[in-house]
Amino acid sequence: MILKEQITDIFCLVDEFMIEFEAHLDHHSIGKKPKRKPKLSMSEVMTIMILFQLSGIRCFKWFYNQYLKRHLSNEFPCLVSYNRFVELQKKALFPMAVFAKTCTLGDCTGISFADSTPIRVCKNKRIFNHKVFDGIATRGKSTMGYFFGFKLHIIVNELGQILDFQITQANVDDRTPLKENLLKRIWGKLYGDKGYVSKKLTEVLFEDGIHLITGIRKNMKNTLMPLFDKIMLRKRSIIETINDQLKNICMIEHSRHRSFHNFLNNILAGIIAYSFLPKKPSVKFYHFIPEKSSQMSLF
User: Tens-digit pLDDT profile for the chain (299 aa)?
Assistant: First the structure.
């Protein structure tokens, strides 16, 4: 059930962003502006897409025609037909991406967790008959086996806030996004699983002020590690919980996409919707400072 106060909060935040976004586009645009504006504003389109991810309803068409038009018509008095809304969705892709990257990400605290999760677009037995993502999606392998689709790479802090994200094809190595632009806003310690083990990557990140800490594989020699880092590696399950909430609450993964634009919009709306969840998984710790030394303890 969506609360009306929640609708107001989301719309106000999105509308404030769109005012600045459209003003910036008008300042740098070349050519004539369209004289006729859509009946449904872009702020309302983006708000509706975010509300769908928070509603718990699996079918967007049913959500729009049966729930939105019947129960939220007072909040959205200028609703258009479902087919027209699908057309407006495509125009919302660029502002949704900018909004997700600028207004919903958390701040780095010096403790970060990295992971990737598969985004399947169909079941394995339908890979050869799948047409929507033909030539775009690829086959990859995760701990659960082979899949067809994409990967979502995310960085989170101990408060459960997403710091940054990137979408790649399924056959891209987990370490590749770390070498590019995924860690621009990250500093301090970064914890990852064994898929991020790389001596060269660790050295490169260390020069940028990032200490990459991972588990060791069976064929590797054991190394000394501070107790705090060992405990935080065990707490890395926080990012697995976040991936689970993104898929099962915000529904970023399903096999009913009809276009690549719809796929991207669904993931972006899910990531934005996650930032509005009232409760997020977190790791709690406190600082204990004795007289001559300082140490950090978990509880």
Answer: 566 778 999 999 999 999 999 888 877 666 666 667 788 999 999 999 999 999 888 899 999 999 999 999 899 999 999 999 999 999 999 999 999 999 999 999 999 999 999 999 998 899 988 899 988 999 999 888 899 999 999 999 999 999 999 999 999 999 999 988 888 889 999 999 888 988 899 999 998 899 999 988 777 777 778 888 888 988 899 999 999 999 999 999 988 888 999 999 999 999 999 999 988 999 887 654 444 444 444 44
Per-residue H/E/C for the chain: CCCHHHHHHHHHHHHHHHHHHHHHHHHHCCCCCCCCCCCCCHHHHHHHHHHHHHHCCCCHHHHHHHHHHHHCCCCCCCCCCHHHHHHHHHHCHHHHHHHHHHCCCCCCCCEEEEEEEEEECCCHHHCCCCCCCCCCCEEEEECCEEEEEEEEEEEEECCCCEEEEEEEECCCCCCHHHHCCCCCCCCEEEEECHHHCCHHHHHHHHHCCEEEEECCCCCCCCCCCCHHHHHHHHCCHHHHHHHHHHHHCCCCCCCCCCCHHHHHHHHHHHHHHHHCCCCCCCCCEEEECCCCCCEEEEC
**Cβ 162 vs Cβ 156: under 8 Å:** yes
Q: Which tokens in the block code for residue 67?
A: 């729930």
Of 270, 241, 278, 277, nearest to 254 (Cα)?
270
Q: Model's pTM, two decimal places? A: 0.89
Residue 44 is encoded by which pair of tokens?
């309302």
- Tokens 């598969």 locate to 118
Structure tokens at 284: 């709690």
Closest CA to 116 of 156, 148, 158, 146: 156
Query: Which amino acid, residue 90?
Result: K
Amino acid occupying residue 25: L
Q: State the Cα–Cα distance between residues 199 and 83, nearest whole angstrom.
A: 52
